[in-house]
């Protein structure tokens, strides 16, 4: 999946001219015929920059950003009541105490590490990340998080064709996000957010915090955890922000090291 | 040095019990004790901290897998939420984090907050003040006719007993 995404991104990074629409793996990218192919030496170095993080399992060391105690203190393990439980969340639950579900933090640690690692790789390659949450209580927090890491957020009403009808609603040649992070996968009437289904339709990977009443099946990297307590959501926002900033800084550092040091460089 | 080690190992059990007792009495964390510690006890605490630091540095990131006290099962078992038992009629300490006219939004450490009416004459309850609550329910849910899952209100229910220690006008945090 990742090499294919990188191949698409290399060619179509800042294309604005709408001449030919060529779908590449579900995304609608546009080729700009006047774009110069990158020079051979720069291309080799760019390949090296892109492939080096793939050699290690935890290249960005995201496992250091959080610990089990941090998750526990932020009340990530608290789930809803037994009657609200979604059948597909049962594998992620540690148990049920006096009718309250407890989420297994050992599993959450692994899933969160995978999700943060994936987010870091996407940010390293210059992908667009979209934060989505329909919880009004945390709307401002999510928007400020996205602003602080230079990415995008959508915490308002989700129009039906936002992803699936983007070329008509927003003009041809729109670049869709490369990753969508759901801080809460439910909308205000406790149904699954439309963005999850639409992202799956458009082949956009998703990272989602799934509580015990959510459906984790369509989310690419589900993170079982509490999405109702402010402490937990602040922890997630902080972790995602730190990961994305860390990955972007690492990219700048790699470009400096390998000599592509122009700050206005547009080659990804 | 050898004498210090022997005294340290002898006092280890006595010192470990007291933080647990404190944690069970107050549901919110109170931090270190208010009375100033001096002399040998200060030195002992400092040595404990240094010893733990060297242990964690030596163990590295696998400290949690080696130390059973930090496993999720152990943390959960000793958490105040589990030790409390059923939530019905449990008295807890909460902290007001938002005030909207007469409604106080109080967070007591559970998954949800609770909303209580400000009692008449208690104008000293501001955001940040600590109150005592009697919990009724940690999450208000009910199964309605024709529904497959419960409907949840995303709130807890509690009865406000009054400010903590009767000191209405003292704002902590």
Automatic annotation (TrEMBL), chain A:
Entry annotated with the keyword Mitochondrion: yes
Localization of this protein: Mitochondrion
Any single Gene Ontology cellular-component annotation: mitochondrial inner membrane
Keywords: Mitochondrion, Ribonucleoprotein, Ribosomal protein, Signal
UniProt signal peptide: 1-17
Function: Required for mitoribosome formation and stability, and mitochondrial translation.
Entry protein name: Small ribosomal subunit protein uS2m
Species this protein is from: Astatotilapia calliptera (Eastern happy)
Gene: MRPS2
TrEMBL record, chain B:
Pfam family, one: MRP-S35
Highest taxon in the source lineage: Eukaryota
GO cellular component, one term: mitochondrial small ribosomal subunit
UniProt-listed PANTHER family: MITOCHONDRIAL 28S RIBOSOMAL PROTEIN S28, SMALL RIBOSOMAL SUBUNIT PROTEIN BS1M
UniProt-recorded name of the protein: Mitochondrial ribosomal protein S28
């Amino acid at each position: 999946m990742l090499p294919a995404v990188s191949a698409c991104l290399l060619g179509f990074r800042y294309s604005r001219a709408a001449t030919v629409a060529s779908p590449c793996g579900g995304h609608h990218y546009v080729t700009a015929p006047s774009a110069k192919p990158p020079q051979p030496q720069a291309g080799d170095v760019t390949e090296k920059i892109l492939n080096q993080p793939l050699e290690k399992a935890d290249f960005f060391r995201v496992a250091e950003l959080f610990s089990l105690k941090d998750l526990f203190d932020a009340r990530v393990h608290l789930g809803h009541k037994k009657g609200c439980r979604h059948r597909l969340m049962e594998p992620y639950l540690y148990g049920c105490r006096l009718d309250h579900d407890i989420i297994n933090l050992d599993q959450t640690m692994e899933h969160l590490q995978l999700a943060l690692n994936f987010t870091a790789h996407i940010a390293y390659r210059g992908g667009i990340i979209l934060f989505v949450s329909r919880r009004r209580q945390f709307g401002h927090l999510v928007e400020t998080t996205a602003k602080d890491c230079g990415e995008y957020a959508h915490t308002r009403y989700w129009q039906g064709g936002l992803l699936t009808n983007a070329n008509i609603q927003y003009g041809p040649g729109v670049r869709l996000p490369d990753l969508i992070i759901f801080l809460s996968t439910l909308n205000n009437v406790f149904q699954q957010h439309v963005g999850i289904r639409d992202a799956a339709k458009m082949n956009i990977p998703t990272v989602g915090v799934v509580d015990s009443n959510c459906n984790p099946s369509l989310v690419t990297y589900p993170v079982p955890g509490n999405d109702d307590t402010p402490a937990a959501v602040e922890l997630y926002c902080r972790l995602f922000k730190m990961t994305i900033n860390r990955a972007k800084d690492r990219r700048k550092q790699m470009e400096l090291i390998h000599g592509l040091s122009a700050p206005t460089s547009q080659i990804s | 040095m050898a004498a210090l080690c022997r005294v340290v190992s002898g006092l280890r059990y006595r010192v470990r019990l007291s933080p647990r007792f404190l944690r069970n009495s107050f549901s919110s964390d109170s931090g270190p004790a208010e009375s100033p510690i001096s002399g040998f006890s200060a030195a002992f605490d400092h040595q404990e901290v240094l010893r733990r630091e060297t242990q964690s540095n030596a163990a590295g990131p696998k400290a949690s897998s080696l130390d059973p006290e930090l496993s999720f099962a152990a943390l959960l078992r000793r958490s105040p939420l589990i030790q409390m038992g059923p939530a019905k009629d449990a008295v807890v300490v909460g902290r007001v984090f938002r005030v909207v006219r007469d409604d106080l939004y109080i967070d007591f450490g559970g998954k949800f907050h609770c909303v209580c009416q400000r009692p008449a004459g208690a104008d000293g309850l501001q955001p940040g003040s600590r109150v005592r609550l009697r919990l009724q329910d940690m999450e208000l849910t009910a199964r309605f006719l024709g529904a497959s899952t419960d409907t949840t209100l995303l709130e807890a229910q509690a009865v406000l007993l009054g400010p903590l220690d009767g000191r209405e006008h003292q704002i902590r945090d």
